[in-house]
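Teaching note: in complex prediction, the entire set of molecules is handled at once rather than each chain in isolation. The prompt given to students was simply: 'Predict the structure of this complex.' The entities are:
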Amino acid sequence: MKAMILMKRIILPGLSIALLIASCMRPSRAADGTSISLASFTENDVAVTIQLDHDRQEGSFLSATFTPPEGYHLYSKDIPINGLNGLGRPTRLELLSESHIRVVGELTESAKAGVPDFEPKELLVYPAGAVTLSLKIDLPPGRDWFNDAVSVTYMACSDVLCFPPVEGKVVPIRVPGADVLDDQ
Amino acid sequence: MKRKVLLTLITSILLACNFLFPAKGTATPEAMNPRPTEKSSSGDSSSDIALIGFTSIRLHPGDGDLQIMLAKEAQKATALSQLPVVEFDATWCPPCRAIDEAFDAKNELILKAYDGIYIIKLDVDEWEWNDGRVQNFAFDGIPVYFKLDAEGKQTGKVIDGGAWKEDIPANIAPVMDKFFHGD
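The expected output is the structure of the full assembly:
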């Protein structure tokens, strides 16, 4: 009986408030704007999808979602490009120098990287599972679509097994001009 | 009194015999550590682990044809009464590093598991791991171990890091011991 009262008076209202706050703090870009899938592939057991998200208020974001097999993790975007003392490889999404797209924000991550169970502890890893990296971008003006490319780097390991890294893989994408998205 | 002297004499003779002619298979330190270790022919000594009881070498593509080298190494292993095993690793692989560190720390469990084993290390970056293959070795992840026969050919017995759940010697050693010394 006491448990029921506790449930009704505290837990359920608390959960509702938490959900409300969470939904206010992280509005879904896809729900309010436009999402365009630009590329997808699987290499070295990690599925990668590249996506463009746009809405009028927030602007445009280029995202890459890296999905390793169950139980495998990816490494923090912030570890050195050649790994920590050679170990691991960062998860990265980058534009090429000749790209028409302009980066206007920092690379953000969907999950916070943490200290691994194994040594070295400085080799930060994301929790096992998928990770999305996003870049706030400015698309060139115009109503034409253009060819571009992004570069991705990643490496997936479990605590006991590693797949080979994919380093600086260039992924061709076809991207709309800013006016195409604003018209939608 | 005579019986006491006789008993003392017999005991002394038995002790002397045991000392002078030890039984075959007795684990004296020399008998436990008879096997030499070997270094990579290309002189990459930093990547080789020289420990008593097993051999660890690293082969590089510049040293020659892999199959020919494996055949030669398997012959050497057989001459040493050791079992040839190929290990694929890489410098970027934390689980591979964890095993090397267990050796560096001279972990007793690991040393015991590897006793009598002739490890032939191949770096997947040097040997070009493409589409899950390095020549006729097929595997998805590293570290991975392939048992070889006396001619340097794969026996079909393979094990990888997935066989143990955590990269700690207490988990690795019993699994590797069973793989190396089991059927």
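Point out the following to students. The first strand of chain A starts at residue 34 and ends at 43. The longest helix of chain A spans residues 2-25.
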